[in-house]
Amino acid sequence: NNETLTIVDAKPLLKNLKQKEFRWPVLGDALGSSSRWVESQFNLLETLAQIRSQHSKSVLIRLFVSPDDKNSNQYIIKLDQASLSLSSREDYITNTTEAQMYREALLRLMVDVSVMLGANEQDAEAQMKPVLDFEIKLAQIVIPYENRTSENMYNKYTLSKLQRTVPDFNWLGFVRAVIDTELYPDLKMSSSEQVIVRAPQYFKDLFKLINTTETRTVANYVIWRSVFSRITTLSRRFLYRYLDFARVTTGTTSLTPRWDKCVNYVENTLIYATGRLFVDKHFQEDKKHMMEELINGIRWAFIDMLEKENDWMDKETKRKATEKVYLDLVISVYAQLSFSETDYFGNVMQTLKFIAQSDIGWLRKTVPRTEWFTNPTTVNAFYSSSTNQIRFPAGELQKPFFWGLNYPRSLSYGAIGVIVGHELTHGFDNNGRKYDKDGNLDQWWSNSSITRFTEKTQCIIDQYNSYYWKEAGLNVQ
C-alpha cells in the first residue's frame, strides 16, 4: 500500500529513534528535547545488544549461535567481527577511483538521510564525516577474508577468559542483554559460558579504536548502521535516495516494485510458511525417492573414482574419505507473530525480532542431524561442513535441473547430477577437507595427502596464471 507508506513516511523509524538506546546524536533536538542524545546517558553495550536482539542487526560485534566446529553435536555462541556499510573492506582501504566514488556516495547518503529525518544540514555535514573516517579505521582492523580460515577462527574461550583478554567491554553483560528472557527464561548465562571467538585480534583493536574516538562519533556510527538497514522499508522518497546511492555502488538503475519486495521479504523471512505452500504444490514424494536414488548412484561413482583413479591420497585417508561420502543423511514456528495490513514497518520489525532470537533458542540443545534450515523455495544447492550434509531444497528439484519420473533418467543425471557431484566434492575442497565425517573440525587427511593436494592445486593455479587475456593486457589470475 504505497499511499499508506507515503502518509506514514518515516514516523515508525522516528518513533524508534526516540527510544533511549536508539537516539541519534546528529538529529539534535529534531525529535524534541526529551529525545535528544545525551553523552552521559549513552550505553554502547545496551545499544549494540538491543540492535542485535530487536532488529537482528550486528554492529561492531556479531553474536550468533551455531554448531561447535570441533563438537558438531552441540550448539555454541560465536562472537565475530561485523559487516561494514559498503560491501567490501577494500572499498575503504584502497584509493582507486571506484573506491573513492563509493565512499563519497556513502557519505552523501549518510548526510542526506539524517537531514531527511530532521537533522540540520550543517550539523549533518560536520558529524557524518567523522563517522565515515571511523568506519575507514574500522575496515583497517577487520580481519581480511584470506586470513579467516577455519583454524584461525576457532578460539574457544570462557566469557571470563574473554573478559581478561579484552577487558574494555562487559562480555557477559552483552550476551545476557542479547537474550530475550521472556522467550528463554531458563537460559542462564555465567562467566563460565564457553564461546567461540572468531576474531580475537579484531576485538582487541576494536576497543582501542573506540577508546580513542569521540563517543558522539561512535554513537552516530552505531545508530547510522541501524538506520541504514531500514531505509528501504520507508516511503518512496527514501527509496529514491537509496537508489541514487545504489546506482554508484552496485549499478542498480531502477526501484524494485513494492509488491516484489514484499513477496521476497515474506519468502526470505517466513521461510517455512511459504516453503510449505510451495512444497505442497510442486514437490511430490516420488521426486524425493528418485532424488535419493540419484544421489546414491553418484556417491558410488565417487567412491569408485576415489578407489581406482585417485593416486595422491594414501590408503587410510581414502578409507576415511569413503566413510565421509557415505554418511547416510538425506535430509507452528510463527504463532507469536501478528501482522497488520497497514503497518509495513511494524511487520518488518516483528519478523526481525523473531529472526534475531531464533538462533538463541538452540543453545543447550543437540544439533538435529536430520533437519536443516534452508528455505525450501531456494533454487540452489548447498553443502554443510558442520553436519556433512548435501542439501537440495524443493526449489532446486524442478525443471530444468530435475526432470522426474516421466522423463529419461539421463536428463536428471546430466542436470541435477552435475550439481550433486559438485556439492559432494565440497566435502573435500580446501575448507570441507578440514571437517571429518561427523562434521568436526579435525585434520583427518594425512600430512602426505595434504602436501600432494596442495601441489596439485598449485599446478592448476600456475596453469591458469599462464593464460594471457589480450584484450585486457593481463594474465588470468
CATH superfamily of the largest domain: Neutral endopeptidase , domain2
Q: How many domains make up the coordinates?
A: 2
In the sheet with the most strands, the strands line up as: 1-2-4-3
SSE string, helix = H, strand = E?
HHHEEHHHEHHEHHHHHHHHEEHHEE
Which quaternary structure do these chains form?
single chain
Largest sheet: 4 strands, mixed
What does this structure look like?
- This protein has 477 residues and is α+β, with helices and mostly antiparallel strands.
- It has 2 domains: 2-254, Orthogonal Bundle (Neutral endopeptidase, domain 2); 271-458, Collagenase (Catalytic Domain), CATH 3.40.390.10.
- Helices cover 49% and strands 8% of the residues.
- It has 18 helices and 8 strands.
- The protein has helices spanning 2-8, 11-17, 44-55, 90-93, 97-116, 121-141, 159-165, 171-178, 200-211, 215-228, 236-249, 258-269, 271-282, 285-308, 315-325, 344-358, 409-425, 447-465; strands at residues 61-68, 71-81, 156-158, 194-197, 382-384, 389-391, 468-469, 474-475.
- Strands 1-2-4-3 form a 4-stranded mixed β-sheet. A two-stranded antiparallel ribbon has the order 5-6. Strands 7-8 form a two-stranded antiparallel sheet.
- Helix 3 (44-55) packs across helix 16.
- The longest helix has 24 residues, at 285-308.
- The radius of gyration is 25 Å and the shape is globular.
- 27% of the residues are buried.
- Its cofactor is Zn(2+).
- Pfam families: Peptidase_M13 (PF01431), Peptidase_M13_N (PF05649).
